[in-house]
Amino acid sequence: MKVLLSLLLAAVTCLDLGHSLQCYTCRDLTPVEKCLTIENCTGSDFICKTTMYSEEDVYPPTGISVVTKMCSSSCVPSDLDGIGMTHPVTCCYSDLCNFDGAASLRISVVPVGILASSLCAFFWTRL
Fold first, then answer.
1. Looking at the structure, do residues 80 and 96 belong to the same domain, yes or no?
2. Which InterPro entries is this protein grouped with (predicted)?
3. Do residues 5 and 47 both lie within one domain?
């Protein structure tokens, strides 16, 4: 009976896996406030990645901050205490979390739910 309940719990948890992550995307240098294109990420892309560029990187200088944003399968965020950083990178993991380019700690509910139910099922069957 416990095994059946564990399998049922795992199946219910996996029902929402068809939903793909959505990120704001602009692959060319774009002003932060104009990068509003929404992209449905592929199955292997589970991170919204934003790279900020300083005004000096843009020619001719525009006086505004520009970014690239995209879906990604990997992302290494910049050290927030880094000195002299020219292209800070932020990574986030929930739908449209890369709106403003700032580092985000929001976590998608689906992976957390899957992890929690898997741990629950594991401990339930071990009892």
1. yes
2. CD59_antigen_CS, Ly-6/neurotoxin-like_GPI-ap, LY6_UPA_recep-like, Snake_toxin-like_sf, Toxin/TOLIP
3. no
The number of distinct structural domains making up the chain is 2
Question: How far apart are the C-alpha atoms of 117 and 112, rounded to whole Å?
Answer: 9
The verdict on 117 and 86 lying in the same domain is no
Decide: pTM greater than 0.70. Answer: no
pLDDT digits (tens, 9 = 90+) for 61-97: 666 788 999 999 999 998 766 565 568 899 999 999 9
Q: How many CA atoms lie within 13 A of 107 on its CB side?
A: 7
Write out the residue range of the structural domain in which residue 123 sits: 1-18+108-127
Nearest CA to 25 out of 34, 16, 12 is that of 34
Q: Which of 9, 31, 54, 15 is nearest to 100 (CA)?
A: 31
